[in-house]
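Why does residue order matter? Because the sequence determines the fold. Keep that principle in mind as you read this record.
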Amino acid sequence: MMTSSNITSQFLLEKIPAEVILQLKVALDADKTITREDRTISAATRAAIDAVFEAGGKVGLCTGRPYAPAARDVLKIFPPESVHVVASGGALVTQTGKRISGREMTGELVLELIAAATTNGCGYWFGIEDKLYINSTKKPDFDKFLYPMKIYDASEAPDITHIPIAQMSISELNANMRAVLKEFETKISYTVMPDFKGDDYVDINAVGVDKAAGLRQLAEYYGLPVEQIISVGDGLNDFEMVGASYGVAMGNAVPGLKGIAKLVIGNTDDDGLAEFLLALIEARKILQAK
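Structure:
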């Protein structure tokens, strides 16, 4: 791990392989990487993402969010040609949500998990295209966080028996539901994480799917080794992504992620991501001029 509180182009030239800088392909976590701690996105971050595209590079999401809540705010700052990994690696999509590739769960499997969550008094949610369906005491938080996006009650969802689902989540976790998740481990991948209030919830994907798997889909789309993609994250669901690529941790990242990252940059509230992206662009210009 290499850490700097003052990222410059020269520093990056010394630390990042030239071929990685020249490709200028970047995948970003959303919450507390692109967004600040208060969930806003700074003008500096917006401008830096635009600058990557203006320089001929590409930058997109590699987020745990399904497409629908990502489209509510974070996706709005990207240009139309952007490509994104959503739902913790469950799908690779265009800016408009069109599926490019993915490894989704079957609707039958999701229905089994919903039944188990309901039996054990847990809440749940899942996305289908641009709609998010929820049955949880957390719904008021979603309504507030994602306003003015409409959040649908799970009772309004279509029959998902034959609809592939990129990801579902379960909240209000208890010991019984945690035991059920272990019973499903041959069929699912999952990560338990704290939400913004510190309550545990779990993101669930098809077995073998995580952000690293999604990043490999993105690398295949670009025709690159995954090691030549720069990923930036901060949380517990970013470990695989950061480990698979040229992984960068935010200054506000969980300690374990900083430990495996190749580089640690500034805090999100200090525009650490914007500083990094702009220095990366300048480093690339220096290499191109040689």
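The chain has two domains: 9-100+210-289, 107-206.
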